[in-house]
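Weekend entry, working from home. Most of the wet-lab plans are on hold until the incubator is repaired, so I used the time to fold the two sequences that have been sitting in the queue since the last round of cloning. Logging both here for the record. First:
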Amino acid sequence: MKPDRVKATWIGVMRVLVVGSGGREHALCWAIARSPLCDALFATPGNAGIAELADCRPVAATDQDGLLALCLSERIDFVVVGPEAPLVAGLVDHLEAHGIACFGPTAAAAILEGSKGFTKDFCARHAIPTAFYIRTRDRATARAYVEQQGAPIVVKADGLAAGKGVVVAADIDEALAAIDAMLLDQRFGAAGAELVIEECLIGEEVSFFALCDGTNALPLASAQDHKAVGVGDTGPNTGGMGAYSPAPALDAALESRVMAEIIRPTLAGMAAEGRAFKGVLFAGLMLTADGPKLIEFNARFGDPECEVLLRRLQTDLLPVLIATREGTLDRITLDWDTRAALGVVLAAKGYPGDPVKGTPIAGLQQARNAAADIEIFHAGTAQRGDSLVADGGRVLVVTALGNSVGAAQANAYRAVAAIDWPGGFCRTDIGWRAVERERNA
């Protein structure tokens, strides 16, 4: 068994592995590569952008034995797990059992993301404010509940569905169709075998992130993303078409309420139930007239929120991740750039359905030069000879800084305009809520 070497490396340097291949993982690699503690950086499987920072190896994020073998052969000191699927499947448990230190929750804790039904029941047990709901596997029960409650109403697949297993139905027919698509057509496979059907919360949606070490919770900066594929928040939900930080809607008073009413009770409740949570607790919130209410939990950094958060974080990320794993977050303080950060997702045509892959992308250097403080994170790219090509649904995240959200928005779209990619598209209004607030202030 490989010994746990993380504590010793506080005074030395580390060999770090980042698991994943998206924009979130590129941003994590970008931040970790700048740490004086990082001696060597690996990524699995990575992408074309990550390959500029890390030694990428073709091991799937869900290949637990392959990842363990890589960690042992490359003498990895610390593993940062980016995506939700390997966390829910128990990758952290597997590597930690072999003495390899990891950032991320165990499978028992990651169930907060892995099962929406578990989370709703957990909230009921611990008096955490959230929407009224039922959970069911029975089509007749689901349809009867929708017809009784009326619309708008929300239909969710219980399990992981890559951010696409949620339908906010404007009318009863749309809700019934969503039930049939999940239970009869098995659109999301096993993830949709059980449904959560809940009231549609009214208000403004924000993302709230806190690092948790099992006992202590350290809030990160606020962020707001755009789930809908179309301008004006129209069309089907996606994994996220853009984000910005900070979110003006979440002021200091609301942040205190979120910590007191949602984050700390969750941390205490999970510990009491033998599911101590270590990692990033990502709360999707609705700011209702009655206060903040939980929409859902995720057990990892959001994507594309991670990209804008890390653009603003001035503290060395790697020691913070280690402290999260070791239970010493009470010794950590975070410094943030006071400027706003905004990220625009460029997606392949066809997304969030079947994206068109293999289309060439050019002009990234021109985009970086189009405005100050531009960083482009790769979310779904591959290198084919001398050409960069699209290799996923969400392909690039163009991020910018500015003295206001409006300034960051203008900078980001200048960079987007310089990218030559006929096979892609983006929303043209990322940050619109914050920009409107700034104009009306």
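Second, folded right after the first finished:
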Amino acid sequence: MLLSDYLRHRAALSRARGPLFLSESRRNLAGPLTLWTWSKVVRQVALAAGVPRFSTHTTRHLCLTDLARMGWELHAIATFAGHRSTGSTLRYIHLSGRELSAKLSSSMAQIHAWRVGMLTGDAGCPAGGVPA
């Protein structure tokens, strides 16, 4: 309902295609919001919602963390984020201890199965390779 109401309000400001959020200031009426203005709006909403640590950058952290949770390689996440260094990307990814433990358990199970296959001569295990 909120989005529907806003879209009607936006149409009253401008019917032109383009940015979703438009300025209502006299200096920039119906123009796109600047990054500075958008940051201030998000800050005010976060404070009103009682989440003072939320910012426009929070969603970036969430997106990159979600990509890591889905199994994206670190270099792919860094490229997506526009980072030159994977070190920068690592500062954005926030996996919980539970998530890291589950990933380690899964990886160790695969390695164990590969070792057993190598020792028993299991044909289902690629020669010299770790199973996918």
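Plan for Monday: verify the second prediction. The helical segments are 2-13, 35-48, 56-69, 74-81, 86-92, 97-120.
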